[in-house]
Amino acid sequence: MKQHRLGIIGLSPGNGHPYSWSAIFNGYDRKEMAKCPFPVIPEYLNQQDPRTMCIKEGRVTHIWTQDPKISKQVARASLIDNVVENLTDLIGKVDAIILARDDGENHLRMAKPFLDAGIPILIDKPLTDQEDDLKEFVRYYQQGKPIMSCSSMRYARSILDLKANKKIGRILTASAVTPKYWRTYAIHMIEAVYAVMGGGVESVQNVGRSGEEIVHLDYADGRHAVVQTFAKIGQGNIMFYGEKGMALAGDPDAFFQFKNMLQHFIKMLQTGKSPIDWKETVEMVKVVIAGQRSLEEKGRRVNLSEIG
User: Which of 190, 188, 223, 222 is CA-nearest to residue 206?
Assistant: First the structure.
């Protein structure tokens, strides 16, 4: 069994993925992880069986963040052997990269050295929230560069169960609500909608306001979804409505969905095949961009065809 050497990149404000995702591969030091500034992470890690929690086919061997102090703190907590001073120092030392930041406006800049070097990369959601950067990512993909990007909501237990169980029939509409902000967190619910209902969104209209986004996704075949991001709420969920009933999704089992997502990334490294349709990834990013554009243009309905 090959154990892939992974380099992890962090840390963006409010996002503790370098701690948790590294621990899912490496295990963790309980005392050091207790110092993690995101208390929910040691809370759910401590609930796992240490004999079975780790993905054995990979190990995070190197870390870079913008602050060496943060890098060393994460390394101590998540048992990472090497801290590098410069982002590009990871090249030649690892087999793949995990870009564990959710600031999409910085993703292309940080991913570019590794894409140019042909190193496979997992990019946290959203892939980007910039139209020009999306064009560049598409160009890299067309060149055969191995890229995976998604929200772990795609791999949540409730979403997987709903996909497997067709008891509510053909789904005609969905209503999704999440805390925080459109540019960083809407992708969680967009990804859940796409995982269950598939792609084919034609237009997007944002009738909310900043911090209270209410966004209508209009499918070309007549189906609909509404995605809301509210900065001040504490928790969200998603309801799907089908011809035979309805189903609630959005379970809070972060560890399950993170591990499931990371296992799919390892499978991509093993097979060379992305587990997610690239066209679907691109379309979801266009939904994010269109939702922001609609808000800026006072609720204008934005067709995805407008976005290159």
Answer: 190
How confident is the model at residue 180, as a pLDDT? 92
What distances in angstroms separate CA 42 from CA 16, 21, 23, 39, one per listed residue?
11, 12, 10, 6
Q: Is residue 175 part of a domain?
A: yes
Contact call for residues 195 and 281 (beta carbons, < 8 A): no
Do 167 and 214 touch, CB atoms closer than 8 A? no
Are residues 259 and 230 located together in one domain of the fold?
Answer: no
- Residue 167: alpha-carbon gap to chain centroid: 28
Distances (CA, A) of 298 to 121, 147, 293: 36, 34, 9
Task: Report how far apart, in Å, the C-alpha atoms of 23 and of each of 10, 33, 53, 64 are.
Answer: 14, 9, 9, 16
Confirm if 80 and 25 have CB atoms less than 8 A apart: no
Residue span of the structural domain in which 34 resides: 4-151+255-275
Residue 36 and residue 129 in one domain: yes
Residue 190 lies inside a defined structural domain of this protein: yes
Instruction: Determine the pLDDT at residue 167.
Output: 87
Residues 143 and 270 in one domain: yes
Same domain, 125 and 234: no
State the pTM of this model. Answer: 0.95
Give the bridge partners for 19, in sequence order: none
Per-residue pLDDT, 250: 77
Q: How many Cβ atoms are within 10 Å of 263's Cβ, its own excluded?
A: 16
Angstrom distance (rounded) from CA 302 to CA 287: 9
Alpha helices by DSSP H, listed for the chain, are 17-26, 30-33, 40-45, 68-78, 107-116, 131-142, 157-164, 182-197, 254-271, 278-296
CA torsion, ordered 130, 133, 134, 138, to nearest 10 deg: 180
Kindly give the pairing relationship between strand 147-150 and strand 224-230: unpaired
Do the bridges between strand 96-99 and strand 121-124 make them parallel or antiparallel, or are there none, so unpaired? parallel
Please state the domain count of the chain.
2
Spell out, as residue ranges, where the chain has pLDDT lower than 50: none
